[in-house]
Specification:
The complex is a heterodimer of chains A (589) and B (241). With 589 residues, chain A is mainly β. Chain A is 13% helix and 34% strand. Chain A is built from 8 helices and 34 strands. Chain A has a 7-stranded mixed barrel. Chain A has a 6-stranded mixed beta sheet with strand order 22-28-29-30-27-23, with no helix packed on it. Chain B is mainly beta. Chain B is 6% helix and 52% strand. In chain B, the strands form 3 sheets. In chain B, strands 1, 10, 11, 12, 13, 14, 15 and 16 form an 8-stranded antiparallel beta sheet that branches. In chain B, strands 2, 4, 5, 6, 7 and 9 form a 6-stranded antiparallel beta sheet that branches. Classes of the chains: A mainly beta (589), B mainly beta (241). Chains A and B meet through strand 1 of A and strand 11 and strand 12 of B. Strand 1 of chain A pairs parallel with strand 12 of chain B.
């Protein structure tokens, strides 16, 4: 074990949180070639730069540690008084984005050490040294780094006495806002999924017809402030007509190679000033490949098909996308026309629903994905018990009613120019119904989950293949959600801090009882939420009560009663009605 | 030796033989142990101050350092050419407060040798100490409080204990400190240093580990007797171990 692990598992230690703010910093020296600036020196930041042509963007780390713990190493300011997580929460599809709010002490900063590169340089800046204003640390940081938004914030966890490189990176996100208030500073940041917020594909642009056009006119001129954003070729929409074009003349702004009344729409006459909006045609493409494209492609309509959020691929667990793309075999391809500017977040949500997968930003600093299957052989499962892990007084459980459904309705084969959030926007619907669950003997009510799938169409693949994909997907989803999945909320101590969102745990706790009234024993659940609370870690663990997927196990596994949670991730044969020890058994996927 | 404070710093116009990026040597003047000067190697390091006019000193305090095991020498000079040693000692891991015979000089330097790690210093104060006029009547030189969070499992097993920090509190009540000292020496000292870390040594020679960087807390509220004499002065200080 390393020093970090030694401290984490020690009975007595001093935990330290380290926040690292990475702000832009010029790599040049004021007045030294290539910098040609003269006079009062800048602060090596772009807003204060006097020779922007030679500005050299690099990064500078500003480090802060807990105000109520010893600074862990030199060069760290002990300003951090409160670290509040609004943690990632895995939902059935797109996760709740994680946010971090840090409250920092502020203090008079008469020396400017560390925030003014020329503060003590007698040859360059003696005047400023003498006449320095008595502002506070954070106010000076803000004044000199007005362009902080979008830069990085990293949260590390470690312990007093270990080296800086032993600290463990627990969260990394994008700065939203820094404010000062009553002698404190508040720093807010969000995880990289924040980049999805507000992005529309295609981007809404301001382009319109310069002149009236007839219903059969084959070329026409555009005007508007966003002409430069028009793709070199593609498709667009004017009112209810779709138009494909093969070229745009960047000098005259004339569209040519035009196909009127595309995608089954009717060609029509339009007036000068009518708005023209590019549309995006997606696919045919594998759903997981599409998710990756939507995350990583730049939002620029001209260079990307489809445009996306522009998230750095280093922030994405591409191996997970590749693994689940091919598990157990590839899905149908998705395709479709985005007729209007569509919320990217909404579109990703729909793709995830279509393949019944979840996506979230993990504590391992990657956007990751996983199909929503209840068991997966080979995964690591951590034991969490009342006796050895769960902090006294911290447990509670809910019944999981919000995730229980008796029928799943999938809408597919979208109709043009209809509201694709409603059933009327589609020509096909597949409904999977659990009659037993809706009977008076069980829940006695219909609880339907509607899944609009605007990118599921048989336009370029066999209708039977698509029908089978939709029907089996709806059935699996129904099996998975016919029982409520209780969520147990508990706290563990720092020694168990490496349990992350998305991890599988085997719970032994009296917060949930089995039918005989005994505490559940080694019931496997998924950590859907993890909240750092200083000395403890709060976990939400969603248990699963429905049938599991039957995998063929290796030779030598014991009987079910003697099997470990890891062994039970494979399949066992149930009784005549599919039960094992009063629980749902296993099904063929 | 009577307990004393060390607050007024004569060090200025500093230079160092080497300085790591982002750790200017003037960091040692801001009384923040977490902003440091750091050298670039374990070779001998010298920090030199040109005080301008001659300045007196009889004590030095060092905090926020990693000099444990190193040899520290304090030297003075009138011309920055001929140096006279005023003090040499082997540093421990804790804050350092040392005294020496009063000297007035323009140039002062700190020479660090026998270094086992690239040295860093958070705070250095060199100046004239302010001694208490007499030993306190009621004196608690150290009350240590461990600020910690602990937890047990649902079945009562002890989980880990997370110590946040170890607080240190010092209380002294000085009997009849003298009206002149109280009003004209201690009161200005208290007012100008409230909120600022200063060094305090109870018995720098015999109890060096109980010396260090503290902050004056509480109130300035001397008591007077019927004859108008200051009958007692309570001083409270706080710091961390």
């Amino acid at each position: 074990m390393g020093a970090f692990e030694d401290q984490q598992s020690a009975l007595v230690r001093t935990p330290v949180t380290l926040a690292v703010l990475r702000l832009d910093y010029c790599g040049n020296t004021f007045g030294v070639s290539p910098c040609t600036a003269t006079g009062e020196p800048c602060y090596n930041t772009f807003p204060t730069c006097k020779d922007r042509g030679n500005y050299l963007r690099t990064e500078k780390a500003y480090k802060f540690s807990d105000a109520d713990a010893p600074p862990p190493f030199p060069g760290v300011r002990p300003y951090l008084v409160r670290h509040r997580d609004i943690p990632t929460e895995i939902r059935d599809t797109l996760a709740v984005r994680g946010r971090v709010v840090l409250e920092m002490l502020d203090e008079p900063e008469p020396t400017d050490v560390g925030i003014d590169p020329y503060v003590f340089d007698g040859t360059l800046n003696y005047t400023r040294q003498v006449n320095r204003s008595p502002g506070t640390y954070w106010k000076k940081i803000l004044a000199r780094n007005r362009n902080y938004a979008g830069r990085k914030l990293e949260i590390y966890k470690g312990f007093a006495g270990i080296a800086e490189n032993e600290f463990a990176l627990r969260w990394a996100g994008i700065l939203d806002e820094i404010t000062t208030d009553n002698g404190n500073a508040k720093i807010e940041a969000a995880d990289p999924l924040q980049a999805l917020r507000g992005v529309k594909i295609p981007e809404q642009i301001a382009v319109e017809l310069l002149n009236d056009i007839t219903s059969d006119q084959q070329s026409f001129v555009l005007t508007g402030v966003d002409l430069a954003k028009m793709p070199d070729s593609g498709a667009c929409r004017i009112a209810d007509e779709f138009i494909r074009y093969s070229a745009i003349d960047r000098n005259t702004n004339e569209l040519s190679g035009v196909t009127r009344g595309a995608y089954g729409s009717a060609a029509d006459a339009h007036d000068a000033g009518d708005a023209l909006q590019p549309v995006v045609y997606i696919g045919p493409v594998n759903p997981f490949d599409l998710l990756l494209s939507l995350l990583t492609n730049a939002p620029d309509l001209r260079t990307n098909a489809p445009p996306g959020a522009g998230i750095d691929s280093a922030s994405i667990d591409t191996a997970a996308f590749a693994f689940w793309r091919d598990w157990p075999s590839t899905d149908i391809n998705l395709e479709g026309l985005l007729e209007d500017p569509t919320d990217l977040e909404r579109l990703i949500f729909e793709v995830l629903e279509t393949v019944d997968a979840s996506m979230w930003y993990s504590e391992r600093q990657k956007i990751t994905v996983r199909r929503n299957i209840p068991n997966a052989p080979g995964r690591s499962i951590r034991e969490v018990t009342d006796a050895a892990h769960i902090v006294g007084g911290s447990g509670k459980a809910d019944g999981g009613e919000d995730e229980r459904y008796t029928r799943i309705a999938v809408y597919w084969e979208p109709r043009r120019l209809k509201d694709q959030q409603k059933r009327s926007g589609y020509s096909r619907t597949e409904v999977a119904v659990d009659v037993d669950a809706e009977s008076p003997n069980e829940y006695g009510a219909v609880k339907e989950r509607a899944i609009p799938a605007r990118l599921v169409t048989s336009a370029s693949q066999q209708a039977e293949t698509v029908e089978e994909f939709v029907a089996s997907g709806a059935q699996r989803r129904l099996l998975r959600s016919r029982e409520g999945s209780p969520t147990v909320t508990l706290e563990v101590e720092i020694k168990d801090a490496d349990i992350s969102t998305g991890d599988a745990v085997a719970l032994t706790t009296d917060e949930v009882l089995d039918v005989a009234g005994n505490p559940i024993s080694r019931a496997v659940g998924i950590v859907t939420k993890r909240e750092d609370r200083g000395n403890t870690i709060r976990l939400n663990v969603r248990l699963y009560r429905g049938p599991r997927v039957g995998f063929i196990s290796p030779d030598g596994h014991p009987d079910y009663a003697m099997a470990t949670p890891t062994e039970r991730d494979y399949g066992y044969v149930g009784d005549d009605i599919g039960l094992i020890e009063t629980h749902h058994g296993y099904r063929i996927y | 030796m009577k307990p004393f404070f060390l607050a007024d710093n004569i060090l200025t116009n500093l230079t160092a033989t080497s300085t790591a990026f982002g750790t200017d040597v003037k960091n040692i003047l801001d009384r923040r142990p977490y902003t440091v000067w750091q050298g670039t190697s374990t070779a001998a390091q010298t920090i030199t101050a040109d005080c301008g006019p001659d300045r007196p000193a009889d004590a030095i305090g060092i905090s926020g350092h990693n000099l444990s095991g190193a040899t520290v020498a304090l030297e003075s000079s009138q011309d920055a050419a001929a140096w006279t040693n005023r003090l040499t000692f082997a540093a421990g891991a804790e804050d350092i407060v040392k005294t020496f015979g009063p000297v007035t000089a323009r140039y002062w330097r700190l020479v660090l040798t026998n270094l086992t790690a690239t040295p860093y210093l958070g705070v250095v104060v060199l100046g004239t100490r302010l001694s208490l006029p007499r030993f306190p009547r009621e004196f608690t030189p150290e009350t240590i409080t461990v600020e910690a969070d602990g937890a047990k499992t649902k079945t009562g097993n002890l989980l880990g204990l997370s110590i946040r920090y170890t607080a240190r509190k010092i209380q002294a009540e000085i009997p009849y400190p003298g009206n002149d000292w109280t009003e004209n020496i201690f009161r200005p000292f208290f007012c100008s240093n409230t909120g600022h870390p200063v060094f305090f040594a109870w018995d720098a020679d015999n109890w060096p580990r109980k010396s260090g960087l503290i902050r004056l807390s509480g109130k300035y509220a001397p008591s007077y007797d019927a004859l108008g004499r200051v009958s007692s002065l309570s001083v409270e200080m706080e710091g961390v171990v």
